[in-house]
């Protein structure tokens, strides 16, 4: 990043459930670790249907139960410039990864990765809870928490 901060971008489909939840969880962990000022953290979606909207109310409620406020976030769409702006571009599932990789192959920059590669499981996808019930949002937050801790470890090593 040009300003010396390490940029982290979370990507899902619509930027109203998984990626804003990841942004909120990761921001909280970075703050607790005293690293928030060293990072630029953002989220976006590969699709543009929800641009400008707040996260899904169920995602906000699940995050709030864990002390995380997502209400200030607004959806935006992934753009090619993000490939140069961020040091970590992590996607929630393989479809998001394929979409961002298509743009990356044409433009270069930071190669996108699956977010759960940073988790203990080492692979897999964060399922989209949009069409499911409340339990899906809790499961998503558990996966995000684990992968966020791993991502933060990776960044700490980079900063060392």
How would you describe what is shown here?
- It is a single chain.
- This protein has 160 residues and is an alpha/beta fold.
- Helix content is 42%, strand content 12%.
- α1 (18-32) crosses α5 (134-159) and α2 (57-64) packs across α5 (134-159).
- α1 links the parallel β1 and β2 (39-45).
- The chain has one domain: Response regulator (Rossmann fold).
- It starts with 5 loop residues before the first strand and ends with a helix.
- A 4-stranded parallel beta sheet has the order 2-1-3-4.
Q: Main sheet?
A: 4 strands, parallel
The Cα radius of gyration reads 14 Å
Number of strands: 4
Model regions low in confidence, pLDDT < 50 over at least 5 residues: none
Q: What strand order characterises the main sheet?
A: 2-1-3-4
Terminus-to-terminus distance = 17 Å
User: How much beta, percentage-wise?
Assistant: 5-15%
Global shape: globular
**Helix/sheet category:** alpha/beta
Number of domains: 1
């Amino acid at each position: 990043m040009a300003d010396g901060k390490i940029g982290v971008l979370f990507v899902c489909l619509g930027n109203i459930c998984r990626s804003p939840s990841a942004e909120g969880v990761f921001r909280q962990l970075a703050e607790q670790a005293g690293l928030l000022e060293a990072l630029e953290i953002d989220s976006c979606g590969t699709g543009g249907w929800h641009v400008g909207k707040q996260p899904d109310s169920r995602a906000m409620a699940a995050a709030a139960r864990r002390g995380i406020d997502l209400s200030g976030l607004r959806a935006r769409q992934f753009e090619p410039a993000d490939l140069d702006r961020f040091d970590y571009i992590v996607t929630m599932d393989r479809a998001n990864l394929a979409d961002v990789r298509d743009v990356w192959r044409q433009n270069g920059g930071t190669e996108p990765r699956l977010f759960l590669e940073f988790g203990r499981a080492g692979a897999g996808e964060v399922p989209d809870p949009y069409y499911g019930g409340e339990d899906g949002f809790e499961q998503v937050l558990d996966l995000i928490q684990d992968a966020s801790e791993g991502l933060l470890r990776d960044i700490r090593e980079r900063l060392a």
